Amino acid sequence: MTDSPAAARSDHWLRAIVYGLLAEVATIITIIVIVRIYRQVIAPGQADAVYAAFGERTGGIVGIIGGTVYTFLMARLLTRRLSERQLAHGVVVAVAAIALSIGGSLAGHRGLPMGYLLASVLKLAAGALAGFLAARGRSIPAV
Question: Residue 25: is its pLDDT beyond 80?
Fold first, then answer.
């Protein structure tokens, strides 16, 4: 028994959401790993305030740059496998990553730092770019 085309399409949308969540989880893991390496290898024995400040700076930088890169990579991974609606799927990957990011910020920071606005815009651009590149690659005939 084969799946219907409608079920296959809805599966792609669900995958886009999962890939977006994975992009944000990868960003969080990267921040944690960098902070741990700093704390245990680079600067052991510092005051907790030093580690907290380093974590804030690292989160701000890696959250923006890493979040954008991971969103692009996950959107690219998904959209290059699709035959249609690549741009929309790339945007959905970004929206899912943004939703987890903002939800985590509201839960953890009890607010939304301004860096999250920039990170969100960059994630949207990254997801759209990945989808655009996938769509453009599909439209070029093989020689």
Answer: yes
Distance CA 38, CA 22 (A): 24
| Extents of the domains making up the chain | 5-136
Do residues 112 and 106 lie in contact, with contact meaning Cβ atoms separated by under 8 Å? yes
> Ranked by mean pLDDT, which of 29-33, 59-63, 82-86 comes out on top?
29-33
pLDDT band (50, 70, 90) for residue 105: confident
Q: Would you tell me the crossing angle of helices 5-37 and 48-79 to the nearest 10 degrees?
A: 150
Taking alpha carbons only, the member of 76, 129, 91, 97 closest to residue 28 is 97
Residue 78 and residue 76: Cα distance in Å, rounded? 5
Contact 19, 74 (CB under 8 A): yes
> Count of residues for the chain?
143
The pLDDT confidence band at residue 77, using thresholds 50, 70 and 90, is very high
* Cα gap 121→98, rounded to integer Å: 9
The Cα 21–Cα 10 span in angstroms is 17
